[in-house]
Amino acid sequence: MTDATLPELDPNNPTPLYHQIYLHYRHRILSGVLKNGERLPSEEDIATAFSVSRITAKRAMNELAEEGLVTRNRGRGTTVSYVAPERPRGDGFSGLLENLVNIAATTTVDVLTLTYAAAPSPVAELLELPVGALVQRAERRRSRDGEPFSYITSYLPEAIGRNFGEGELAAHPILQLIEQSGHEISSALQTISAEPADPIVAQALKLPPGAPLLKISRLVRDADGKPIQFIEVLYRPDMYQLEMSLSRGEDDDGRKVWSSSR
């Protein structure tokens, strides 16, 4: 372990120092950087590297052990015992939306916040709403087998959002609720990017702040072409991956290029 791999602990963060260390190693284990059978540094080495007490280092390692991510053996140290399950895979960009719908059927949702407020300027522009128009803003966390999977922020025009509340959002896919309120969904524009987890999202997804996340942004339109929802979903990359089949061929100008097989 070198200094370059270590995050800087924040003593002003309400998250205790031992838990910040735990989150660092937890993320490295779940993301596959530290693999099954690999030995972690000793408590003394961890304490020195992070400039904390050995008790703090020990508590971080014990928390990993309680979660079943490592095995602690007296005299032999701490080794990774986590075996990564197969991650859900999106079948290319064209199949990604369908894959996310399937994910919704195998996970549970916690509604973290549900408010009505003036739409942020970029959101108002996307939804073609006047400045200051109220929107329903919902923040949800999706989990699989109790493990946080994604952080979802959605915006709906007030007239649509008032048709359902927290209970419905926790029990049903939001697209289903929109259609049940009388709005037929016809199309969507979706973009894929990445961004680091801010402290709030990091805490919700049990990640260290700054951990990389897959970001899906989607603008949904009804049958008349009117935008009715803007949603951003942040996915833990250790629990989701995008797989695409490519083929090598020639374009219209006879140049060799890669293209999706779908």
Report on this structure.
Keywords: DNA-binding, Transcription, Transcription regulation. This is UTRA domain-containing protein. Residues 15-83 form the HTH gntR-type domain. It holds the Pfam family GntR. One of its GO terms (molecular function) is DNA binding. The chain is built from nine helices and twelve strands. The chain is α+β, with helices and mostly antiparallel strands and 262 residues long. The protein has two domains: 3-80, Winged helix-like DNA-binding domain superfamily/Winged helix DNA-binding domain (Arc Repressor Mutant, subunit A); 89-243, 3-Layer(aba) Sandwich (Chorismate lyase). A six-stranded antiparallel β-sheet has the order 4-5-6-9-8-7. A two-stranded antiparallel ribbon has the order 1-2. The radius of gyration is 22 Å and the shape is globular.
Short characterization:
The protein is an alpha+beta fold and 262 residues long.
Just give the CATH class of the largest domain. Answer: Alpha Beta
Percent strand: 25-35%
Overall geometric form:
globular
Across the major sheet, the strand order is 4-5-6-9-8-7
Largest sheet at a glance? 6 strands, antiparallel
CATH architecture label of the largest domain = 3-Layer(aba) Sandwich
SSE arrangement, N to C: HHHEEEHEHEEHHHEHEEEEE
The CATH superfamily of the largest domain bears the name Chorismate lyase-like
Number of strands: 12
